[in-house]
Amino acid sequence: MKTRIIMFGALASVLAMSASCTKTEPTAAVSSVSKDQETPFPGGAPITAADLTATPAALPAAPPAYNYDPYNPNITHAEYARFAWRQFIHFNSPAQKNGVDAAGKSPVVRGSIDPSRNFAASGASDFYESGRTAASNFSSNQLVWETFAHRSELFPAGSAPKGNLAALDPEYVFQANLKVASTDARFNNLDENTQIGQNQIFFPKNGNTPSANPQDDHIILFQAKVNPVEYDYIKSIYNAGNPPASLELPPNATSQSESVEVKSAWREMTPELIASGRYHTAEALYYYKENGVTQARVATFGLVGLHILRKMENYPTFVYTTFEQVDSLTTPDSKDTGLYLINLYDQLQYDASVPPGTRPTAILNSGPNRTAVTLPSAGAIDSAHGYDVIPGKYTLPDGFSGPIKVQNPPVATSAVFDINTEVQQAMASSPAFKDSVWRYYRLVGLQVLPTSEDSSVTPAKPDPLTQDFYLANIVIESSQPGIQLFKGGVKDPNPDQKQFTLLAKRGLPSILGVKKLPSNTDQLVMGGCMGCHGNAQYPRDKTTGKGPSIFSFLISQGTLTGQGFSADVRNESSAELSAKRLEYLVY
Description:
Layout: E1 4-8, H1 12-15, E2 21-25, H2 49-52, H3 77-91, E3 95-97, E4 108-113, H4 119-122, E5 149-150, H5 151-154, E6 172-173, E7 179-180, E8 188-189, E9 199-203, E10 218-226, H6 228-237, E11 260-268, H7 271-275, E12 281-290, E13 293-312, E14 315-325, E15 340-343, E16 347-350, E17 361-365, E18 370-374, E19 379-380, E20 401-405, H8 414-428, E21 441-447, E22 489-491, E23 501-505, H9 528-533, H10 574-585
């Protein structure tokens, strides 16, 4: 995307980005902050090699309550970043084996960490393969989060979630009578082919130039999962004939257990990428339509992005942490990968918060400095309106746009950069990580509590919470301003007219009706992952369309009444893709 950037004392190593125009101004005044040493937060302590090899790796306890003091915060962004890494270490450790080795039977205790193995063990490039046997379709080597309940297990089409997740054999039931039996299943089930209905994202198969038909290139696919706590809660309230009048995911008034959701992104792999030892790889299901019939297929995919959402005491809007594999934009030999996206719309509009004829600005807070990035103008999705459209002749359906080069705006914070360096140094000091795939993953950023965007690059009262305000993962939220530099909400303004228009509602407060937050929260316009998930609301008022935020797009009136989910196919038609966008863009 072609953007205009004003950088205030930017750190080049952290905030590098190509731009059509860059203007440098004096460094913004930011008051010094010091941590309240009386607030105990073990999860925020420096990460050492001992943390990486702890057996097992403990899930870090919830952070203490935040004091909302911008000049003397009791928890720093760096401490939250260490907490995020400790979560990553726990959830990416091996799951506990149960000794079962038979077709269609789970070989693990789902949702449980192996007490005898550690994070280093799962970093072996053959971790998944070494757990395979001739007797079973499942590998016994799974990451903890990979064994969580898939969304189609949480809400099977036409039925309630069933059984004890710890011992449940994976099977997937979708709309249109599509079922995957446990004897054909894998734990990774890549049933989503778009970034929440807005766009598809591809790696070129030949160098860094898109194919004439993007569907010939290597697509990134997605899946969503929930931990046993959330699974059990949905089981307890599920009644298709009489859905609950309201809900509150744990922790809530009756349970102090914590809900966790995980969204993962996987790339189609070549033999060379598999052999590189730079990716966590696993067999996964994907879906393909042949002769009008949707079938589940199996291939090896590489993990390229991971969102971890965790709801905790004092953090009722979930804490959002996201990680990515480091090679998505640049290859190990410093070549452009050519990563690009295709939008499922060809027109962009803004709400009244953006005056007609102007381009909105995103204020990015790196910690010590702030940067202003100008977004595209309203109108067609083309170069003239500020998009980095890749020149050439391409086969695109009517109403779609692109290909657009994926770029990473200067959203990185100095605190996250420093903690990634700290973790990399800890790995380098441990022989157990000499050949680990985890050396090639990094924390992108995190969000802990809602706030409004900084009003300028020189705010009178700097707010540490605006660090990572525009939290996005390069392979999960890629389009600007749709979901990368996002705040407020997005929707199709006239879905019945099929105009292929995205309306960016950058003035929309989306964090509504949440308990245990400051009284002004309903007026905040939040950005990034949290701002997006705030639009997941239940129940919605029939007149206003609004309701209290529950922060899970998996839960809706439809899924609570047996609707379930459809499985996206790899070779989906343009008509089917167009319909998919309305699943997320109409509310």
